[in-house]
Amino acid sequence: MRRLFIALDFPDTIVEQVANLCHGVRGARWTPSHQLHLTLRFIGEVDDGTFEDVKECLEMVNFSAFSIRLAGTGFFPPRKQPRVLWVGVEKSTELNDLFSLIENSLESAGLAPDERTFHPHVTVARLREGVRPGEITPFLSGTGLFKTEPVLISEFHLYSSVLRPEGPVHTVEASYELH
Prior knowledge:
Low-confidence stretches: none
Strand order of the largest sheet: 3-1-9-10
Number of strands: 10
């Protein structure tokens, strides 16, 4: 069984800008900079046959390269005890269209559609139990106007993830070029 997700990676300059935001919140487990990415679709545990089907169906995704800009910060879940801190993405029709194409492709491989609304973001921290909204306010206030230069998205990746006590280990299983 493999635990899979599909994601976008960023150039080192962007990763460094995001990593520089990662401090100042008690109870935060910050995402290591080498694991900062934007998840397009979490797939979960699949057997080897489904893994091969997923790899094959993603080869059929035909989409042009485009640019996005990371902007702003926030937390999940909204209006409840915060569990995740994130860096957002400016609205992008192209990103939403790529997500839809990938989602349709995965359905053709027999995967059930993702029922959650696509909210593109980069997870920068997971928060320990008991962190209150007021404790993240300084982080949000200090980073809310964060914005990167446009980033060219010219490929996406299929990752496997192995959960370890010291944190997940992500491995690129396949990469898919956007033309």
